[in-house]
């Protein structure tokens, strides 16, 4: 979890997030009423949907936070990360081809039908492979 940059500006909050934050503060004032998280979320959601006049206060807070976030992101310079690219070992042994690939190498449809695209050739070979039941054995032995 500690992969993030600690100097990166905190993300912008939505108007609903500010509303939930105030709901949580109100809920903390009444510690005797124990409510689980899902109930709390549902109640907040219902209150937010029925709210009309009070939303503007939270929307203003969200706009101000968006301005703050954009201002901080302009000055924020992300650290130069070390990109770890996995290099393939050129001396590593290659994986043996599957029975289907051996079948494909024997049946070169592209030469017979030069107008077909790669996708069409693959579809045609797939159909041929599925239709040949008995002829699969020699390819499966080679694979």
Automatic annotation (TrEMBL):
Coiled coil: none annotated. SUPFAM superfamilies: HMG-box (SSF47095). Residues 9-77, 93-143 form the HMG box domain. It holds the Pfam family HMG_box. It comes from the Eukaryota. Residues 9-77, 93-143 bind DNA. Its main location: nucleus. InterPro entries: HMG_box_dom, HMG_box_dom_sf, HMG_boxA_CS, HMGB. It is found in: Chromosome; Nucleus. One of its GO terms (cellular component) is nucleus. Residues 73-93 are annotated as: Disordered. Keywords: Chromosome, DNA-binding, Nucleus, Repeat. This is Putative high mobility group protein-1. It comes from Hymenochirus curtipes.
